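tool_call: predict_structure(chain=1)
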Amino acid sequence: MALHPSRTVELELAKDAAFDRCRYGIEHVLGGVVREEHRAEGTLEATFGLIYSDRLTCTVAGIDGTHTRVTIETRRGAQAAPNAPSPYVKALADYLIN
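tool_result:
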């Protein structure tokens, strides 16, 4: 697996609301499938596509009662050609902050 750059955004939402927004964005906006979620730890694992699929990890950490930091990372299966940046990291980050 190749690790690709991550992106971190800060949201004016409580941790649970940010977690729910991440899950909704993955499933309903980007069309991914959440494979694992651990609300107490603030992590979501999702996959996109079948061939050379991306695996997205979101880590949701409360800053205070009304602000949350979300880190989005992606991993992709090994490929012969150089890996291009995953569009899912940018798309999810853009959805979360808008």
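agent: Residues 24 and 40 are 17 Å apart (CA to CA). Proceeding to next step.
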